[in-house]
Records
---
Amino acid sequence: MKDVMVIGAGKIGGAIALMLADSGDYRVCVADRSAEQLAKLDAHPAVHSLALDIADHAALVAALRGRFAVLSAAPFHLTGRIAQAAREAGVHYLDLTEDVATTRKVEALAEGAGSAFIPQCGLAPGFISIVANDLAKRFEKLDSVRMRVGALPQYPSNALNYNLTWSTDGLINEYIEPCEAVVEGRLVTVPALEEREEFSLDGVTYEAFNTSGGLGTLAKSLEGRVRTMNYRTIRYPGHQRIIKALLEDLNLRNRRDVLKDLFEHALPATMQDVVVIFVTVCGWREGRYEQETYANKVYAGMVGGRRMSAIQITTASGIATVLDLLAEGRLPARGFVRQEEIALADVLANRFGRAYDPDAARMRKAG
């Protein structure tokens, strides 16, 4: 069994810990400064908790020494500290961040490191990059890569058609920060919440619009090889219009604390959610212009005897799969590792990654 530390005892951190512990191959220490959050963790013989303030750098480094890896499920603005401590402790580092600046810091820390640094191991960025790169490799010449992901309530009941399903800080960050895109072959920055579109999947109409961080490192990897590439978040129609009014007309983009308080006290959380993943790649193959698409919906389900939301399952499965592949020697054991270096076939064949297999999902639904 390998000893790992998960930092952050929230819903995602708890899901990661239970998923890894239930596999029988990992002993998991969950660290958080909040005793209240630690007390909410699901009991498991392979999971124990540690009260730790990551602002105490020396204590964090000491807690990491001797472990196989640290997995950050902490808010994005704290992730850089964990990466720095992982470098000093000589342990592998994985995170879920969508924050572009944080990923750049992790990449810099990875230079010359004796352990692996693998950021963006969740859903988007993360699995979405693995899918898009797999589809892109099937073409001789690329034209466009369009990546769409949304974590949505199955039963929306308010004007925003939305419930809280993951980190409020992360949600606000992706609605406000600039977005990367490839336009006419060049990597550029585009504003969040713009370029709205509508599409239908399985008879349901959705809207999608620019949000920050979803492209991960794939944008840099494919720059110059693809004409158009973008990432957009999926919501039910009407959501973007209200969010723009809050951010622009009420100037809440400059009062994130107020916006967070509003979201957390007005939008109920839900375990009845669905994650929609839709990736389309167009290009030329044997002289013909063709399209390849990955489309999937993942619903809430049972993991380790506990009911988990779809966003918990997809996020925890993403980082657990990468950890497994690292432990099996299928990924580089040192330096910076990009999501697009991971093979989709390896993910879907993995015990954790099977959550993303659309064929398996259809079989579960039929059964």
---
Amino acid sequence: MPEDSVDPAKLRHHGDVDARPGMLDFAVNVQGSAPPDWLRHRLAARLDSLGRYPSAEEDHTARCAVAARHGRSPDEVLPLAGAAEGFAMLPRLAPRLAAVIHPSFTEPELALREAGVAVTRVLLEPPYTLDPMAVPAEADLVVLGNPTNPTSVLHPAETIRALRAPGRVIVVDEAFADAIPGEPASLAGFTAPDVLVLRSLTKTWALAGLRCGYFLGPPELLARLNHGRAHWPLGTLQLEAITATAEPTAVAEEQQRAKAIAVERNAMIDRLTELGIHVHTPAEAPFLLLHVPDGELLRKHLADKGIAVRRADTFPGLGPNHLRVAVRGTAEVDELIAAIRTADLW
């Protein structure tokens, strides 16, 4: 894609910009406004230790917890200050040509372009089915989301594995994989020398303000990503959160929440469809991609009603009539539906 056709401002846009304080938030895909009580108490219990630097032992404990959660070894885990830090590390792999599957989260492309890496976009058309043959053979780095933001598409694991080729590294952004019951398409437990999986704790555990995540992959690639990183890259509370949410009781709670999200999502699809709104399906993630007659008008109308939805024209391949909405419970959806009915779009 010609460099002059890429808009960095659109690549930098994220849903938090669409949600002003006090609005009913369908723009940001975080579940809840704060972590659950047990996690808050666990983090609060570490406050008295903030006068000390985080130790190598705490880092190792976090790696071991994540490794046990995914059936990996600790040296296959790299704790991160949020998934965004992981994307910022990708240029350290020094790819000659990076292929980014779109529509998808734009942060990886932005990080690669700002580092001077050559990027090609692989634009999927509805129903956004991934064809491994569409990726240029010369691409030695391929980045995609699974499930994909904002389409809510879940690519089969075997399709992603088919992207593998000699000399190529695959990076799978699984920021929302823990919101899917059973995580059927996840590669988090797949050990291969050329596959990196990125996980975020922001969404399910409402930890956006703490910045927690991790890479899973071969030690050789993780060492390249980690090279040149600042000392103490994660704080004590971040390491504690990573450890806590990887433990079996937390994973069980996470899966119960994933089942609830699936029920809420199906109900939300039905209600939006009844209004005449096109909802992209099948949808597997905790958000939905909508196509409406006048997306900009509807988004502004909802904002006037105190409801934030995510503009989706900032995602390559989508236009101004696309909107993304987070999956929410019945009461919140009642308000959204009522506000849409007053928009007079049909």
---
Amino acid sequence: MSSDQSATKSFAAVEKVEFPRTNVGKGPVKEAKFLRNTWYVAMFSSDLDEGQLMHRTILNEPILFFRKEDGNVAAIIDRCSHRMAPLSMGKLLPGDRVQCIYHGLEYGPDGHCVKNPHGNCTIPNASHIRSFPVVERHTLIWIWMGDNPADPDTIPDYSCLDDQPELHVTRPGYINVKANYELVVDNLLDLSHINYVHAGILGNADTVAADVEVEQDGDTVTVSRNCPDAESPGILQMMSPDGYERGDQWNSITWYAPSNLILEFGVSKVGEPKEKGTGYFAIHLLTPETDRTTHYHYTASRWNVLTGDEQNRKIRNNIYEMRTFAFADQDVPVIEAQQVVMDQAGESVKPVLLTVDAGPARYQRVLDRLLKDEGQ
């Protein structure tokens, strides 16, 4: 495949079936539980401009993000304590103050109400709202949703996004998935599905029989598949020079609790070490929006790039297009349909486990333990 082709035209999308929702129960099959004392990705740093008020719903809570005059990011509840109007509809004033559009109350970046323009201008203690710790790292804005002290050292390592040439990192992508975040994690940790849902792009007939290996390091779970002397899937052929049409390939995806992942996907010539090959780190950042919706941010960073800059300009765009197609047109229709079918089935349905489910089963045990430790 040449890198100047439209990278997705030759691959089939999954037809999205619209299931009736009239029989959906009041709650999901498994009541949604969210780990709170951890870091979630709110957005890419590039999504939040100076002077902008940005709303995000995270773990069912409305959050307002804005940049302070020193460039750092603040996050407070997006809800005025007076009449519950969204503060994101208001104005950002000098001095890092957010003015409510409804009655003009003003709030600082710590959530304290700093001005009541009415009556004797007294500020009731109950007028203050919650603020959240925020860290900007690896081109991402992270938010801590829990009550425990926030530890920036526990942010997952996505340093592969730092200080890379622009041509080696794809532009940021975002999808709002209408399903619980755990269904998306299940999908990503199940590397076997790429041979069917993403045939031609990420997998093919040569990669079906690869064995799955699962490793756990503390609360981190890694699922790997190695495919020696196999036809290279389309995305690897597209980013490689001539001579990589076949090779030794590998997928290795690591899950960081509760919902951030990084996948290393690469190919080397048959019999040669991985270090001589090429590939990319695929970044998957899942943040629960509600019980049944998920913020899905993604990007990719190439390693050991073996192609020239003129070709890399086209490859950069094609990687974004191919991965977006794989997610939006192939994975997401299946995952969203799963959510509807599971809701309709209620408590009576339990999935049958196969050998390919070793990764999802392992991370689920870790997540259940962490939730239990938080008293959930």
---
Amino acid sequence: MSSRKPSKRITMMDVAKAAGCSQATVSVVLNNIMDIKISADLRARVVEAARSLGYGLASPIRRAALEELRDGCIGFIVDQLTTTPEAVNAIEGARQESWNADVTILVAQTQGRAEYERRAVDRLLRAGAQGIIYMSVFTRRVALDSAFNELPVPLVLLNCHTGDPRFPSVVPDEVNGGKLATSTLIEKGHRRIGIITGETFMEASQDRLIGYRKALGKAGIDYDDQLVGEGNWTPTAGYEATQRLLSLADRPTAIFCQNDKMAMGCFTAIRERGLSVPGDISVIGYDDDEIARHLRPQLTTIDLPHRAMGAWAVRHLGRQSGDVLPNTHKMVCGLIERSSVGPFVA
């Protein structure tokens, strides 16, 4: 089999198809989990399929960036690991990026507690970590504990940022994500567009709302605060906010939900009114949560690029050499087109 650079991102499912096994088996083999019994022949077949397809293959530029970390390990500190998929996706992106450079990732969950962070830093350094990625599940400005100021290894911030230019960071471009979601509805002819926000103290909610307003302004559509419903990221909040929007004398013809879970509640409220998606009301979500593919119709949404952010963080650990780098990189959030957005019908 030939080894060539892939023209698209290769996934574990692609490797599984090529090796003739399950995605779970691919995960076990590529993560070098040895306490699960898999035959040597099957392990070899999975590894060969991954190499042939270029799964996890880094470009020459990326290999050079990670060369100093080769055969070493990276510490990955995150406040919450199990409550949302964002941290898992970021870790998977980091793992894929580091795999071909023989870099191991050690993960510590700290629940955002300073004493746990200090303990994690100490243990990761004693384990030989040659760089540390610090992640917050919610995008926010962080005040780092003094333990991070005295690190003898590079530090990259993931999904969070600080004013210190010593620490490069990567966050989603939420303003343009909100603008893209709203523009998608405008391009379909909608001008009466509702929005259901997350908790308003959160950066993601604020920035997505800014993007919504920017898109309206660019299209010459007046902002109407009656079309803004405040939620808290849950299906119930999406349901209740949609009920209020549908009670308006001039109800919206489209709704932008700031996450996919609220869109799920939005769907329910629309159907309870005897209306259809997207026939009567178009709905767009945000995050590309697993549920987006299981709603009917399937939910058009904006991708939250945590896998790409995890890979970026690994690459920039390898690139640091004492030079001051640009402090915050904003990662593009892309449109995932499915079936919940349709044209405006008068």
